[in-house]
Amino acid sequence: MQVPGSTRSSFKHDHLLQTPDTFIRSPLAGAKDVEFIIHAAPQMGAQFTQMTAEFKAGGSLGPAPAQRFLYVLEGKLELKAGGKKYTLAPAGFAYLPEGIAHEVRALKASRVAVIEKPYEAAAGSAATEIVVGNEKDIKPAAVMGDEALRVRSMMPDGQGYDFAVNTMEYDPGAQLSMVEVHVMEHGLLMLEGGGIYRLGDSWYPVETGDFIWMAPYCPQWFGALGKRPAKYLLYKDWRRHPLGA
Fold first, then answer.
1. In whole angstroms, how large is the CA radius of gyration of the chain?
2. Average of per-residue pLDDT across 61-88
3. pTM greater than 0.85
C-alpha cells in the first residue's frame, strides 16, 4: 500500500527520476487519438524531448518539429517515409531526419517511445538518412569486455548523426564498472527488471516503467538487482563539440 503523498519520483538540478504513479497524460497539437507522457523537455533544462506516446487504434502523430526517433514498446505502427511503407512491431525502431515528411499511424493500440532533438549540423559531415529496423536483430556487444553487460546500438555510427539511442541489458547482479561523469545528457526508460541507480549524490531503487533524465556531468551508476535481467532504452547527445563548432 502506497502512503498518500509519497512517491519514488525525485527532481533535482541534475537529474529526474519519474515513476509511473506520477505520470500525467496530455494531447499535443497535430496528433490524433494519442496521449503523451512528456518525460524530458526544454522546460526542465533538457536539450531534447522524450515522451511515451499512447495510441488508440488508428491514432497518428503530427509533423515532427525536429529529428524524430521511434521505439515501439507495445502494439504495431505503420510508417510511411521516403516513398516507402514500413511496419514496426515491438522493439521496432525508426530514425527520421529533421525535415523529412512522414506519416505514423497505429495499426492497433500501441505504446511508443518518442525522442525528438533539433539537429546540430557539423562541418564536413554527410547528410543523415532514414533508418528503420528492429532492436532484436542487432547483435549485442559486451560493454568494456563484460559479457554480463550488453549494448545494442540502433543509430548509425557516422559524423552526420548528433545523437545515439541504445539498449543496455544487464544480467542479474551485473553493474557498471565505474561511476560515469560526462558532458552528454541522457534520457533513460526502464524496459525490464530493476536495480539501483546512483544519480548525483542520491541512490534510487528503479524498476520497469521508470524514466530517468541525467543532465551533463551528473554522476551516474547502475547495478541490476533481482532474478531477471534489467534492460533500458538510453538516449545521449553525441559527436558535437561543446562550443557548437
1. 18
2. 97
3. yes
